[in-house]
Amino acid sequence: MLTAASPTLTSRLAHLAASSRGTTESYLASARVVLQHVLSHPDLIDPSAFPRVPSGYSRNLLYGRDGVSVWALIWSPGARTPIHDHHCTCCFGVLAGTLRENWFRPLGDDRAVRTAHHVRTPGFVACMAPTGPNIHQMVNDGEAEAISLHIYGYDHEAHASSVDREYSLATL
Ligand SMILES: [Fe+2]
Q1: What is the pLDDT of residues 137-170, one digit of tens each?
Q2: Which of 32, 54, 147, 151 has its CA at 20 to 30 Å from residue 69's CA atom?
Q3: What is the distance in A from the centroid of ligand 1 to the CA of 163?
Q4: Ligand 1 geometric centre to CA of 77 (Å)
């Protein structure tokens, strides 16, 4: 942990984690600023040592303290998450490559229908609070590797992941 993040980035993340005790709105605004800073200074992270998972993705912890965990995700071509929502705040930015983000609305507790899809390219940043409808899925359906940075409002030692619930795809 932390070896791939520069000391400068680690310091910024520690400051951000401390700000998570404030309002959700101010914390998300701060997280967005941190992500935008990293995306414009990609040398703050060295992803070369992160594992690559054929047709899948690896989650690599960069920082975890004060209820905030920060991960670099390496997406091989063909990687996709389950359709899911979150139990915590979720912010992410695309560092390299292209990801497709599918959005859904729920049909009951365990099925969801796709309502939109967006192509996320380097520089894109999104922040979500768990209070809003935020059922989504990330897919690397391109031919190149993608790298994204995720800032979650959860303690990585208390939760296995940011996912609250997974859904199966429903078609109408
Ligand atoms: Fe997610």
Answers
A1: 999 999 999 999 999 999 998 998 999 999 999 9
A2: 54
A3: 7
A4: 18
